[in-house]
Structure formats: C-alpha cells, structure tokens
Amino acid sequence: MNETTTFADSAGATARPRGNRPVLEVEKLRVEFPTRKGTLRAVDDISFHIDEGEVLGVVGESGAGKSMTGTAIIGLLEPPGRIAGGEVRLEGERIDNLPYEKMRRYRGARIGMVFQDPLTSLNPLYTVGFHLTETIRTHSDLSEKQARQRALDLLSEVGIPAPERRIDQYPHQFSGGMRQRVVVALALCANPRLIIADEPTTALDVSIQAQIIRLLQRLCREHGASVMLITHDMGVIAETADRVAVMYAGRIAEVGPVQEVVKNAQHPYTEGLMGAIPTIGGTHEDLVQIKGSMPRLTQIPSGCAFHPRCPKAFDRCRRERPELMPAGRSEAACWLHDPAEKGRRRGNG
Amino acid sequence: MAEVAAPQGPVATGETLLSVRDLGKTFDVSAPFLNRVLQGQPRVHLTAVDDVSFDIPRGSTFSLVGESGCGKSTVARLVVGLYRPSQGRVEFEGTDLARIQTRRQMAPLRRKWAMIFQDPYASLNPRWRVADIVAEPIRYHGLLSGGQAIRTRVGELLELVGLSALDGEKYPHEFSGGQRQRISIARALASEPDFIVCDEPTSALDVSVQAQILNLMKRLQRELGLTYLFISHDLAVVYHISDYVGVMYLGRLVEWSDARLLFSNPRHPYTRMLLDAIPDLEMSGRARTPVGGEVPSPIAPPAGCHFNPRCPFADERCRSETPMALKVGVGEVRCHAVEEGRLPEPESA
Ligand SMILES: Nc1ncnc2c1ncn2[C@@H]1O[C@H](COP(=O)(O)OP(=O)(O)OP(=O)(O)O)[C@@H](O)[C@H]1O
Ligand SMILES: Nc1ncnc2c1ncn2[C@@H]1O[C@H](COP(=O)(O)OP(=O)(O)O)[C@@H](O)[C@H]1O
Ligand code: SF4
Ligand code: SF4
Ligand SMILES: [Mg+2]
Ligand SMILES: [Mg+2]
C-alpha cells in the first residue's frame, strides 16, 4: 500500500490518483497562545481530512485561523503557540507528537510547503541550485551530479527559462513570480504526499498568480500529491479545489464540495461571504453585507461565534456551540441544520 | 514623440469634471551622485506615467486597473497635485491646475477634491481623536467656525459613513480596519468635495468588510453626486463599482472604455490577458489562453508597444513604433493590431 514514488515513475502519471484513504487526518486540533491576559485559542477543535490526490481549499477572512492550522500540521508553530489538543495523522501515522528531528525530516520529504512570501523559504545567501540540490540529496541517495541534473530538470519543469544559466544565481536575482516557481520546485523535489500552500499567490500580480496556480495544480497532479490550499481568494479556490473548508473565528463553519459551497452555501456566514464578493458580469447592485467584522480572539462570542453577525440567529445560537453536521451535500456548524430545529421551525410555519 | 489624437470634448453626455491630457511623470532613480561619478554610471530615469489622457464626467466613477507598478498611484498623485507633471496637464472644471500659481487661487479649488488611501491606519494620525481627524479639513479650509458647529458637523459626517457620533471621542487604534476606512471617508467628505480619488481603498480589507465600504461609497455617490477616480488591481471590484475603466501597462493607458463594454468586449491584447487570468467564481470552466512572461522593468521598457514581448499578435511594427490612441466606440485603444483590423475577436463572448 505504501508504495514509494520515485521521480521517474511519477513523471509519466497524468491522471490524479484518487483513493479513499485520507492522506491527512486532523482531529479536534486545538492551537493556543498563552499570553499575559490569559490563553488565546486560535484554532478551536477543528477536524477535517484530505484524501489522496485531493485539493482541499481553506478559505476565510484574516484572523480566521487558516495559517495557524497549516503551521500546526507541519509542526512550525512559533512558541509560545502550541498544539493544546487533538491529533494530526499523515497516512495513518500520528505526526503532532513527533520529536523535533523526525518532524524536520518529514517536512520536505513527506510534506512540502509553499508560503506567501517566497523569501521565507529561500535563504538569500545560497544559490537557487544549492537550495534544490541540498533538499534533493537530503531526501534521496542521488550523487551530487545527479542531484544537480535533477535540479535543472525541476527548474525547467516549473518554467524557468534557461535553467543552466539561472541555477547558480541567488534568489534576489529572480523576480517574485520566478522565486515562487523555485519554491514550488523545492516543495515538490522529494515527491511529498502532501503540499501545504499558504496564500501562495497573494503577493503576486494577477497574471503571475494564474501562472503559479496552474503550475501548482499541474505538478501536484503529476506527482500525485494532495494539497491543502490556504487562501482568502474564493476565485482561486473555485477554480482549483475539489472540496473547501470555510473557517470563521478558529472553527470550520462549513466544509463540502467546491460547487456546493460556492453555489449552495449552507452556513449563513458562507452565504454572506459569497454574496459579498463582487463578480465580473454580476449586477452592479449593492453587495450582500454582513454587519460587523470577525471578532478578536479575546472576545469570541458564546455559543455560535457568528451569532452577533448572523441574520438568522435564534436563542439557542447564543447558548450552545454547534458542531459540524450534515447540511445538504456539505457539512455546516449551524443549528439551522439540526433535525430537531428543522422540526420545530416547520411547526412554527 | 508624436501627438496623440485627443478625444473631442466630454466622453459622455454630461459635463466633464476632470480632464487629464497627455500626462507624464518621470522620476530620477539614478545612483547617488558620488557613485555615479566614481563608477561612471549614467543618470537613470523611470517613466512612471507616459502620455495618459482621459476624462471623467461629473457624477461617474472612472477606474484605473493594472498590475503592480504600472503607474496607477502616480496618476492619482498627479491628479490631486501631490506630484507636478513632467508633461501634460490636469484640468479640473476646465481650469488647468499647473496654471494656478498662488495658494490663494488654489484654496477654493483645493477643497473640491479629497483622497482616500489603501492603508486606513497609516493615513490617520494615531495621536488624534477621531473627531479632530475628521474636523481637520473643516478647520483647514475655514468652513465652519465655533466648536459647537464643528462638533455637530463631525457627528453628522460620522453617522453618514455608518459610525456613531460618539465614536469621535475615540482614537484610531480602537477601530477595526473597515471602521478606520470609514473614518478616512468621513474625513474626505468633510470639505464637501465634488471629487474623491480612491487609491486601493479596499485592498487591505477582508471581503465582507470590503462589501460594506463599496456599498457605502456607492450610496454616498448617489446621495451627494460625487465623482470618483478609483484605483484597484482587483478587476471584479472595478467591474462592480465603475462606469468607465482604464487599463494601464508600464505607465501607458492601453485601453479605456465603458465598464461593461470593456469587460464584455475587451479590445487590447493585454486587457484580454488580464481578464483571462483572473480566477472565476462562476466556475464556467472556460478554456484559458495561458499567458507567459512577466512585466518587464519600467526602467528599460521594450521599444514600440511595451506589451510586445508578451503579445501573441506582435509584429515588426509593434517592436518599433509606439501605438497611438485610437477611438473605438466610447473609448480608446492603443494597439497596432486593432488599428490594422488584424486582431481576432475574443474567444469568449
Ligand atoms: N517617488 C518615486 N521615485 C521613484 N520611482 C517611483 C516613485 N513613485 C513611483 N515610482 C515608480 O513608478 C512606477 C509606478 O508606481 P506606482 O506606485 O504608480 O504603481 P502602482 O501601479 O500603483 O503599483 P502598486 O499597485 O504596487 O501600488 C513604479 O515602477 C514605481 O517604482
Ligand atoms: N504569536 C501570536 N500570539 C497571539 N495570537 C496570535 C499569534 N499569531 C497569530 N495569532 C492569532 O491567531 C489567529 C489566527 O491567525 P492566523 O492563522 O495567522 O490567521 P489567518 O487566517 O489570517 O491566516 C489570529 O487572530 C491571530 O491574531
Ligand atoms: S448557529 Fe445560529 S448564529 Fe450560528 S450561523 Fe447558525 S443560525 Fe446563525
Ligand atoms: S501593439 Fe502590437 S504588441 Fe502591442 S498589444 Fe497591439 S498587437 Fe500586441
Ligand atoms: Mg495567513
Ligand atoms: Mg499603488
């Protein structure tokens, strides 16, 4: 089952391998920051999974906890931030409690990363080629010469023109878009099972964004990697993801197939969010407005955290916190989808 | 450089409020004097804005779009007089701003326009109470006298933008990003301007908050008859808010037209490329033409049409001759292929 993919055999694969076995499972993950004023909970008991070959989009407004979830999974939380509960499993193996050294080896080899700012992944003192050959050699037994050849191949695979001329240059000699291409090459060079991409295109221009998204999508398919794509850009998610999780105030508000979430939102927050996004070809009428803004971590409302902004809130929402429950073809953390409530509302007319 | 065919009179029925003619701005970006002398480096100039002309009819919204560094903010700063043009002129209600010599002549005009910036925090003085921030243009232009009259007016302005009169007592840091942008808008409205230049007013905001601000701006335009020059890199936002849209590339306005026409029937190859690049929330699954390349350095832009290295329709003439503005419908396009009638119709209808 746990077949080892090599560079050679993955290169020819075109169809995205799809199995039902989840590559990543996150269960009741909780991330906390102890502060002088008390403990802040940035991620609050969230659970989700990513299947083999699947692209899971994670969207939400700033401060929702998207990046914290990503950094907790790869074990890169900055102290004093810490995982305060729950489990993370990669291909069935628990990775949230691994010793530092072992987790360090898993990063790169089994989980690749792409961040918003390519310079966080590239050391300005080393050449692009050095970054690539080091990573390749750490995770394979290729010789230095073979590793360099592999690095050249990767650079041309990610669309760097004249790689033999570019390989010995430093990151600052590359444009923003080119650097992000290098980071994508770096993330993929050990054929990881999972790529976590946090706002990989946010810092780039529109035309370059499209290039990078397409590149990431194609390469992950060819290399058979699953992707957790974190972004606030619903357009990117709509075109790239298979499923999408919508985060709000440290929790998942809704998760489901991408068309469902975009076109047939089940959670009032998702519904508001979709209506708030201007679209080309849409009407010039007023956008849907959600009153207020995302609460600060120090002031998370009781019950359903969305209740002060929710046009459909009722009494129970202020008291009890909803967990994800089946809602249409998706799951939503909203009492409106509780069968008991549905019965009651129908009774009321 | 040859003359551009200036459009004749106002672009639409209705009076032209702002008219920009052959506007240009060049910055000296040379190395410091000593380095130049010691290392024999030449002076280096960067043309941030090159030969830009457009009109804004009173009561409408004209937007400028384009990728980072294409010159949008420089146009905005030229229009409000924060920079002196290197070439061309800006006419406000028929008065050439460069002809105005004295502060006294400028003052009555000066209060007729205002500017809103991208970062609502950086543009608000953190040590001032909100009431003083909003009152500043009133005091500066001597529009009202007496503490009570000013206080009343500030209260009205805060309520106009959806805040409370009591918020005047607070400091900027006590507000969220969206609320701070409302404060900037209240301040901009304080001098009762006819014209507001908005440079990426929602780019730092979350989508749900962006929707609030865009709705507010449209409401104020309806109620107060405001004219906007709106700057953004987000094409969906621009589609939503604009009556007219201009597309900039490396300092030049390559196309402008009625907003709906520009989006439904783009003429310039760069406009088509931009529209094709943006991810699609509608998930129409339309085929895309991949676009290669990146924006070249504005210090040494390609000769002829700046877009020629990335343009699939480029020919010899494009590489040597600068395209002139050509009237097409209500708008203008700068492209040899359009002029020669050799540009195919765009693929998507
Ligand atoms: N004061 C200045 N001195 C030198 N160069 C400048 C100055 N202001 C702008 N530029 C240059 O002029 C060009 C246009 O700048 P501008 O800020 O107008 O771009 P923009 O389209 O608004 O970009 P962004 O979307 O990144 O804000 C850029 O190449 C910029 O580096
Ligand atoms: N070092 C820290 N100390 C306290 N709170 C933090 C820290 N880092 C992040 N947070 C908070 O955690 C929440 C989630 O952050 P993050 O995951 O970065 O959000 P985003 O969805 O924008 O990526 C935010 O409210 C943020 O302010
Ligand atoms: S649980 Fe209640 S407050 Fe929360 S989203 Fe559903 S209806 Fe609104
Ligand atoms: S002028 Fe030539 S290079 Fe420029 S956009 Fe038109 S066809 Fe392309
Ligand atoms: Mg983030
Ligand atoms: Mg700008």
From TrEMBL, chain A:
GO MF annotations, alphabetized: ATP binding; ATP hydrolysis activity
GO BP annotations listed: peptide transport; transmembrane transport
Keywords (A to Z) from UniProt: ATP-binding, Cell membrane, Membrane, Nucleotide-binding, Transport
Residue stretches making up the ABC transporter domain: 24-274
GO cellular component labels: plasma membrane
Keyword Nucleotide-binding found: yes
Membrane topology value: Peripheral membrane protein
Primary localisation category: membrane
InterPro entries: AAA+_ATPase (IPR003593), ABC_Ni/Peptide_Import (IPR050388), ABC_transporter-like_ATP-bd (IPR003439), ABC_transporter-like_CS (IPR017871), Oligopep_ABC_C (IPR013563), P-loop_NTPase (IPR027417)
Top-level taxon of origin: Bacteria
Entries under NCBIfam families matching the protein: oligo_HPY
Protein name: ABC transporter ATP-binding protein
Source organism per UniProt: Ferruginivarius sediminum
UniProtKB/TrEMBL annotation, chain B:
The keyword Ribosomal protein belongs to this UniProt entry's keyword annotation: no
Entry membrane topology: Peripheral membrane protein
Any matching Pfam family: oligo_HPY
PROSITE patterns membership: ABC_TRANSPORTER_1 (PS00211), ABC_TRANSPORTER_2 (PS50893)
Coiled coil: none
An example molecular function term from Gene Ontology annotations: ATP binding
Protein known as: ABC transporter ATP-binding protein
Species this protein is from: Ferruginivarius sediminum
